[in-house]
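Justification of resources, computational component.

The compute hours requested in this renewal are based largely on the per-chain cost of generating structure records like the one below. Each record pairs the submitted sequence with a full structure-token output. That output is archived, and it is also reused by downstream analysis tasks.
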Amino acid sequence: MYKGHGRKLYVSFFSKEAAYDTAETVDCELRVNSQPGEPIVETDNDRDEIGSNEEGNNTWEVANRIEIPIEQSKLRPNTLAGIATYALGSISSAQEGAYDSYVHTITPLSTYELPSFTVEDKLHGSLQRKYSGVFINDFTLSCQRKGFWSIAANCIGSGTAAAGSESPSAISENPLMAGIAKVWSGTGYDGSVSQNKTTADLSGSSDLTSRIVSANWGYNNNCNVDDGYYWNGDGVLERAVRGKRSQTLSMTLELDAGAAELASMTSLSNKGIEFEVYGSSKVDGDGANYFGFNLIFPLVNIVKWKPMGLSGDIMTVDVECDVLQHATHGSVLLTVYNAQAAYAG
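The structure output for this chain reads:
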């Protein structure tokens, strides 16, 4: 009998695969809450052929892949940076002066080929499997009042598997909580990002921090895996290609009594939303940046405003946003602060 506490999950977040499905050495461990990956094997048989036995004589493997969930209920900056880099697809990293502190700016990819990484899943003891050609189809980032930020990603691997043996260490970072986050709505955005913890990067901002109950951001590459199989491809995926991406953004707020916010929320007027999340310690004690992230949506429209609450409850409102593409600054800008120099290098 094997217990799950012996399991480890390793990924190559810092170095992407040089070519799709060319295994890269895994470089960090992730502390996850998710199940092991599930091999997806597509088969066919000869039950439909005249002359075969009633229940068939043969089964053939047509195609295979693996689906790997990565879930972390207590989000670390390294996990967010890695998942977002491979999901959104474009990253620019810069050092904070001469300090051991780095700023990673992550934005959506304009092309359709996604970067890929390698995963090693240690199930128990010497039973460890290596999966190459892994890419991220979708993820959800969420937080509840009085809780931790969490992330849940759905990854797809080519189907190529081998024995694994690497055991890199986890990056030492504290998890990020709702208690270290601020939230604003605003009327404009000029492209700047600052980790000042007191004022928004959005112009015309309104502070929602004291009223927000929960928030959820979903990002989906809408990959059609059938597009990744080739003739003469041995039944495994040959490329990581996304479809037309989509995003969701929803929040629950305590109800504001003023009529002005109601009019603003229900007018389909253009807005920006910003989350600033920062830890209690600096990345480098001599620098200015704290472990954490900024998440900015330059242009959203509120498409649902639903009041909630029974007798005796605090009245809340469920807000759903349509995430749109700003002509200059795109649809989303994620900036992560930590001590790791690069991702997908």
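The helical segments are 77-88, 259-265. The CA atoms of residues 272 and 299 lie 5 Å apart.
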